[in-house]
Write a structure and sequence with these properties.
The complex is a heterotrimer of chains A (505), B (163) and C (314). Chain A is mostly helical and 505 residues long. Chain A has 20 helices and two strands. The chains are: A mainly alpha (505), B mainly alpha (163), C alpha/beta (314). Chain C: InterPro entries: BUG, Bug_dom1.
């Protein structure tokens, strides 16, 4: 049987009414739990996986797919409406999405996130079905030096994209880099900046930092501003749905996000967060409305949301073709497979094609289901904003702390949540951007470790860093990204850039 | 969005100087740590101390830059803050942290709920406290009971949900 | 308050008919990891086999299990209902993290499961046997890069022990630590490194698919269904098992210890446990009593020695 026969067979199974019901239940549960601030997709999947135990394999698989995609999508809802991302991949969604929501454009923001997730999920799942073996070969070419080059490129483009004020952007980034030093150095086992506190040896949890800086910091800042201000969030202003202009501005971003997200998700050391950062940087560079960035540009929601969903599908490439779980969610998925006594690995496509294609068909169905469920719900979600603020923020903080308490109820962890919450508040107060801190925490250790690994493998020979064509190309791109804006400024085309800089507060 | 004071644009900003000093102290901490760490570069030549040292110097440079900007009045004035509101919420989080191991999830989180509501202007604590407790108990039941997330339990949880 | 007392009384009465002990098992890791799964499988089996009426699992993650261990020693002393799951990784982590509490401070009950380490090379590598790999190591230790888990972990220790057994200075090995989640596996598959070291189960699917060549395992004798020599067979005296165990609180009486051991023995003998092990692919390496205490002491000695020689413990 060929690829398409298997896929059709899988779809035929998945279209059974009972199976569709399971998909609906999975998507609903996944969205419902994923939408709680502070609870990201990995925790959602881990929590809901046991729900699928009692079902037959087909039902279990489809419900699982629904929970997974539902959890992924649910996180963006709170990012957009409440500026409280549950995990690192939806942080950039909050940047523009929340500005849109504050301006009464929460409906279009949620819609472009939902449709973008759908489009990216669809295309990436099809790509998974058709070109997984090729993509995985490419992904394996990436060794430490190529990853290092990719991280350098990410640093350059991403920090430029966050730069309202170069000084403040860089300061935020360096705070993140400093926090990233905390913990045991993986390559030598040396404890760094841990001050003998054993809980610090594992470093600072990205989720804790993200939830603290965004959810807690935001709550403190909003409370501190007081109630009598006229920039109250407006639930709906103008159309609840996307206008023709919104569509026109979104579709390219969806496609770009997919193209960035899928391969990065497929890389063993990639990840949805890096994909979403790069997508945001790309959108900011390609947009025709640079003046809107930082004030609610729809591209800044459409691109990253597509990228993180495409990346989620990309994660399945190494999982299904090599048996490598590359993210926390993928590791939990592996546990899901083991329910059926299956070990995903290099032989899975050959020995269990029905299961693989069944899963891919399930993902397609779950994706459609998610769209069907969520588009009508947008009207309801935006009403979250009409909950009186005392109750709304009390609930947000309760769920934000729940995520931390559920995973690690240690006073040190909760103390960090509080401390970083205050940091997030102070940074907002003094106009420092928040996202670069998390970017630094995620990219910093990756860049450091990959650099040191690459040099160790080459026994200290620095030329190894440019000895591979991929690494050299990526570093070249990074250099160009650094130099071209300077040249543009010098040769008089910088007025746009100057104007943007002046517009920012 | 911010209040501007165009008539006095070049006043040195004391808060910003403090930020600069804080950055310098974090930078100093990293440099001190880098000094303490052994040089174990191994075959790569880059050891555990090298990257912290780089970040430390970077922070030092940013500290100087920040102080210079502060002296030139490059920082904009902050919006006026309702300090009590912020303190209510910080207090609520601290109370939750301290009470959690002793009193369990619902009492600790119920208190956080009420304090947050108070910080956002809800003065009727006799409503907010029980509401928070009941809400937290429901959340506990949902997550600990149905989804088997292990949350710390206290008297109310044991009373309602058993062990 | 009265209602609370009443409720506790009622709970007590309800629990009375089952005379079996109640346990709380501390998993010193986040939900989902190996120790957590061990604790939860124990919980499941202890309950379903009727050995214990109520079993709770508590997660205290951090620092290779030493955070959980420290909390356990502080809060569970003398309480026979408290158990902790741990493993070989803890032996190294206690040393490298300078943990104030060690495995001396708990009462080890039994080793439950374990896995041997495996040494592999990419399928495209010219190296065919572990002897050839060691020859290269002897000729130029820096040119042989090893991919494995974090520094000071079981994989790193295995490489150190092999180098030592082959007469190569363990400080000279070029060990590249990767974070979990298959990164090391990807580096081996992509031929970024010379060789790889990890738990056998991680490599087996790749070996079966022909993408990696299995050179040797760290078992004492050949493993059933695994076509590779042991290191001992190849002439290097290295035996290393990454085991998981269960321990009880410090300061319990001998009778209490015997009662716990009896319960765990019952669990180990049960069909439910065997089935659970089989479905998870865990090997039963049951060892209890003095034999286990002896093995533990030996493991600690070897580990401390090699970690010192690698330079991770001062």
């Amino acid at each position: 049987m060929g690829t398409f026969d298997f896929l059709l067979q899988g779809l035929a199974v998945a279209l059974d009414p009972m199976i569709l019901l399971y998909a609906l239940v999975g998507v609903t549960l996944g969205t419902a739990v994923g939408v709680l601030p502070g609870i990201g997709p990995a925790l959602t999947v881990a929590l809901l996986l046991p729900v699928t135990y009692g079902l037959d394999p087909a039902g279990s698989l489809i419900m699982f797919a629904g929970i997974y995609y539902g959890g992924m999508y649910g996180g963006s809802t709170t990012s957009i409406l409440l500026n409280t991302p549950g995990e690192s991949a939806s942080i950039v969604t909050a940047l523009e999405g929340n500005k849109m929501a504050r301006a009464g454009r929460g409906g279009p923001a949620l819609a472009t996130a939902a449709i973008g997730s759908f489009v990216a999920g669809l295309l990436a799942t099809i790509a998974l079905a058709l070109i997984a073996p090729t993509v995985v070969k490419l992904a394996l070419v990436f060794g430490p030096r190529e990853y290092f080059a990719l991280m350098v490129l990410a640093f350059v483009t991403v920090s430029a994209a966050f730069g309202d004020s170069t000084l403040r952007g860089l300061t935020s980034l360096f705070i993140g880099l400093a926090l990233a030093v905390v913990g045991i150095d993986q390559l030598t086992g040396q404890a760094r900046l841990s001050f003998g506190v054993p809980q610090l040896l594992d470093g600072i949890e990205v989720t804790t930092l993200a939830v603290a800086l965004f959810a807690v910091g935001e709550a403190l800042f909003v409370a501190g501003r007081g109630m009598h201000r006229d920039d109250e969030a407006i639930a709906v202003k103008g159309s609840l749905w996307m206008t023709a202009r919104d569509w026109g501005r979104s579709w390219k971003s969806w496609l770009r996000g997919t193209v960035i997200g899928f391969p990065i998700g497929a890389m063993p050391a990639g990840g949805a967060d890096i994909a979403s950062f790069l997508s945001y940087a790309t959108e900011k560079r390609f947009t025709r409305h640079p003046e809107e960035f930082g004030h609610g540009a729809i591209e800044g929601v459409a691109g990253p949301e597509a990228a993180n969903n495409a990346s989620a599908a990309g994660t399945l490439v190494p999982l299904l073709t090599l048996g490598l779980p590359t993210t926390a969610t993928a590791a939990i998925m592996l546990a899901g497979f083991q329910q059926f006594g299956l070990q995903p690995g290099p032989l899975l496509f050959a020995t269990n094609p029905q299961l693989v294609w069944g899963l891919i068909a399930s993902l397609l169905i779950a994706n459609v289901m998610l769209l069907v469920l969520n588009l009508p719900l947008i009207g309801l979600w935006v009403r979250l904003l009409t909950i009186p603020r005392p109750w709304l923020y009390a609930g947000i903080l309760l769920f934000a702390t729940l995520g931390t308490i559920g995973v690690n109820p240690s006073p040190v962890e909760l103390g960090m949540l509080l401390g970083f919450g205050v940091l997030g508040y102070l940074m907002r107060l003094f106009g420092y951007p928040i996202a670069p801190v998390v970017v630094g925490l995620i990219l910093g250790p990756m860049a450091e470790q990959q650099l040191r690994r690459a040099l160790a493998i080459a026994q200290g020979d620095v030329t190894t860093l440019i000895a591979s064509p991929i690494a050299a190309t990526l570093l070249g791109l990074a250099a160009a990204a650094l130099i071209v804006p300077i040249l543009m400024r010098r040769y008089g085309r910088g007025d746009i850039l100057v104007k943007i800089a002046a517009d920012e507060d | 969005m911010r209040h501007r004071f165009p008539d006095n644009p070049r006043r040195p900003d004391r808060a910003a100087v403090v930020i600069g000093l804080l950055l310098a102290s974090v930078g100093g901490l990293l440099l001190w740590e880098a000094h303490r760490l052994p040089q174990q570069g191994g075959y790569g030549g880059v050891g555990p101390a090298d990257v912290p040292r780089m970040i430390g110097w970077g922070l030092m440079a940013l500290a100087v830059w920040t102080v210079v900007e502060a002296m030139r009045g490059g920082f904009e004035p902050r919006p006026r803050q309702q300090v009590p509101a912020v303190l209510w919420i910080v207090g609520g989080l601290a109370a939750q942290l301290l009470l959690l191991p002793v009193a369990g999830f619902s009492i600790a989180s119920g208190l956080l709920f009420a304090c947050t509501a108070r910080g956002f202007g809800e003065r009727r604590l006799w409503i907010a406290l029980p509401a928070g407790l009941i809400f937290a108990l429901l959340v506990y039941g949902l997550f600990d009971g149905i989804l088997s997330l292990n949350l710390p339990s206290g008297p109310p949880e044991r009373l309602i949900y058993g062990g | 308050m009265t209602r609370f007392i009443l409720a506790s009384l009622m709970a007590g009465v309800l629990a009375l008919p089952a005379l079996a002990a109640d346990y709380t098992i501390l998993a010193p890791a986040a939900p989902g990891g190996g120790w957590d799964q061990t604790a939860r499988t124990m919980q499941e089996v202890l309950r379903s086999e009727g050995i214990s009426e109520s079993v709770q699992v508590q997660n205290v993650p951090g620092a290779g299990g030493t955070v959980g261990l420290a909390q356990f020693v502080a809060s569970a002393a003398g309480d026979p209902s408290q158990l902790i799951v741990g493993g070989y990784v803890m032996v190294g982590a206690i040393l490298t993290n300078g943990s104030p509490v060690g495995l001396d401070d708990v009462t080890p009950i039994a080793r439950l499961t374990g896995e041997y380490e495996a040494i592999v090379v990419p399928a495209s590598s010219p190296i065919q046997t572990v002897g050839e790999l060691v020859d290269q190591l002897k000729a130029d230790p820096g040119a042989v890069s090893w991919a494995g888990g974090s520094a000071g972990g079981t994989d790193h220790i295995a490489v150190g022990l092999l180098a030592k057994a082959a007469g190569v200075d363990p400080t000279k090995i070029n060990y590249i630590a990767f974070s979990g989640g298959g990164e090391a596996l990807a580096a081996i598959l992509g031929s970024q490194v010379t060789a790889g070291v990890s738990g056998l189960s991680e490599f087996l699917p790749q070996v079966e698919a022909g993408t990696m060549r299995l050179l040797a395992v760290t078992a004492p004798e050949r493993l059933e269904g695994v076509d590779a020599p042991t290191l001992a067979e190849a002439g290097y005296d290295v035996v290393l098992q990454n085991w998981r165990m269960v321990a009880a609180a410090p300061g319990i009486s001998d009778e209490q210890k015997a009662a716990i051991l009896a319960d765990i023995e019952k669990m180990n003998a049960s069909e439910g446990w065997q089935k659970a092990l089989a479905s998870k692919g865990w090997a039963n390496t049951w060892l209890a009593g003095d034999a286990f205490a002896e093995q533990l002491a030996k493991d600690r000695e070897t580990t401390e020695g090699i970690l010192r020689e690698i330079g991770l413990v001062k």
